[in-house]
Amino acid sequence: MTETIPVRKDEECAWPVPSTWRQTLREVVGAINEGNYSLAGIVRVEQLDETTADAIRNNINAYGGTLRELPQDSWVTSVCQWQLHYWEVLIDLFTVEEGRSDLVLHVNVFEEKQNFKFKVHLVYVP
């Protein structure tokens, strides 16, 4: 049985990505892999403007690897931290060529009524 990782509001410490967010984050990476850089049509994910979508595409192309779906190993090193009004999330991305890459997916997660809303900032090498 897989351990359930709770959502924590701790501005002093980074924590693993909560279990409840992981499927949406997998969908985001899947959409990017399929060329949907604006993230259109993903429930609870804010659609990106053309400038941000182009920046994500350009950063991935400049990196030179082929992104793959998020493996379970991604959750071992990916983190989130409460920032008083939202969580900042950094997801380690994997490529076909090298496994864990230097690329990260940077997302902010907001509480919205009884759910969460995801705003992707960028895919980049920190």
Describe this structure in words.
The chain is an alpha+beta fold and 126 residues long. The protein has helices at 19-33, 50-63, 74-77, and strands spanning 15-16, 79-82, 87-95, 99-112, 115-124. The protein has a five-stranded antiparallel sheet. It starts with 14 loop residues before the first strand and ends with a strand. The model has no long low-confidence stretch (mean pLDDT 96). The relative contact order is 0.21. It has one domain. The protein is globular. The protein is built from three helices and five strands; from the N terminus they run βαααββββ. A hairpin with a 4-residue loop joins β2 and β3. The longest helix has 15 residues, at 19-33.
Tell me the domain tally: 1
Distance between the termini: 33 Å
The low-confidence parts are none
Class by alpha and beta content: alpha+beta
What is the succession of H and E elements?
A: EHHHEEEE
The amount of helix comes to 25-40%
Q: Cα-atom Rg, whole angstroms?
A: 14 Å
How many runs of DSSP E, i.e. beta strands?
5
Quick one: biggest sheet? 5 strands, antiparallel
Order of strands, main sheet, comes to 1-2-3-4-5
Give the CA-based shape. Answer: globular
Kindly estimate the percentage of residues that lie in beta strands according to DSSP. Answer: 25-35%
The number of helices is 3
Average pLDDT, rounded to a whole number, is: 96
